[in-house]
Specification:
This protein has 418 residues and is an alpha/beta fold. The chain has helices at 3-16, 22-35, 98-106, 139-158, 174-185, 216-221, 224-237, 266-269, 277-289, 293-299, 315-328, 331-335, 365-377, 402-417, and strands at 38-39, 42-46, 48-58, 66-74, 82-87, 109-116, 167-172, 194-198, 342-347, 355-356, 362-363, 385-390. The longest helix is centred in the middle third of the chain and has 20 residues, at 139-158.
Amino acid sequence: MSRISLALCLLALSFSSQALEEKYAYSEIVDYLQNGKKCDGNPNQDFWELKSVKTPFYAFQSQGKKYHLRYSKFGCSIGKKGALVIGPGRTEASVEYYETAIDFIKRGYSPVYVIDHRGQGFSPRLLENTYKGHVVNFLDYSSDLNSATIAIQKELKTMGFSATDNLYYTSNSMGGAIWLGYLGTVKGKVPYKKAAILGAQIRVNYLSYIDKEPTVLNNAIYSEAGVIAQATLACKVQGKCNDFARNDSFGTYTPGSRQFVYEDNVRDQEKFMTHSKNRYDLKTYIWDTHDWSALINEAYQGENWISPALGGTTFSWTYTATKFLLKMRSRKFIKGFPNVPLLILTGSNDHRAYKPLRDGGSDLSRHIKYCKKINRHNSHSKKLCTFKELKGSFHEIYKESDIYRNEGIESVDKFLSN
């Protein structure tokens, strides 16, 4: 082989693992959704498949049967580095991680499985109003992850996945809290080798959801204690567990209402949770524009919804999620974590993570302290948890602009594979 040919091969290999460029993200993924994408070398096998697993629970719209959780499978073979499971954030559908799955497959992780958490994405809704983000017990999400993991393990085994192959987990936002709940409650040996949770729901900055200044009074009203008190009154006293916790823009969802309008103020920008208009618009396309009727009519008979779109949370969700976070951060809960190394990766401008600072950044001390607490109180290793700050990034790192997203993916890959 000539030096020129060798150089071209090396150049091709270097580009093969790079993430899809932001300017092509929207058009390429929309094309795959509209026309399908097949596995390389097998025109009869779909690159993306939607699957379901029966859980131990019953729920609304499951027609008297056990609740069937759904998840996406991306990829066609076992990757050199192993397989990857992704836990999305609240409101996110598994198909929204099409691009992220492609990027990780290029890096040697395959198949990539993405969970549709109960009540969102392609999983059956829990209430008659399908725009309500609802759950009765936050740990139901973690139990669902366990059910999906068992099903994924069985499928991987049929593909030739052995006990020596690696299974990893990564997530966005609520998917991180679900993972921590899984670690604290799962029985038996955990099949995952490592996990990387991005913008994790560890302590929520509830004030970031409303247009109010972080005064002393507002910080108290929208603190965890304040939110629990409000949810307790509405849910336990007034019987409004299934009502939206808020009735403004964070209540029901109106198709066509998503608009990416970039503001000068960092706090205003952050409400979009990404700097990337292309990736923001891709989610809007998935929610508002793409025609899901064929899929729904075929496999979703009796489920009263027409797209993966989701609105705000109910008082029930708010109550049980906040109570869980208090439990999750306790020494007793952490002590039971299995020996699975963890990366907590958080954007420096992630206002969902905790609270905004006057310079436009965020106080990430809760994430840093939680990671240190894991290292101090788990029964395995003082280096079980690693914290990393991603400078400049907003909340949704996997949907961020390339300058932040590429560094985030590189950090996750480096952590998982080393």
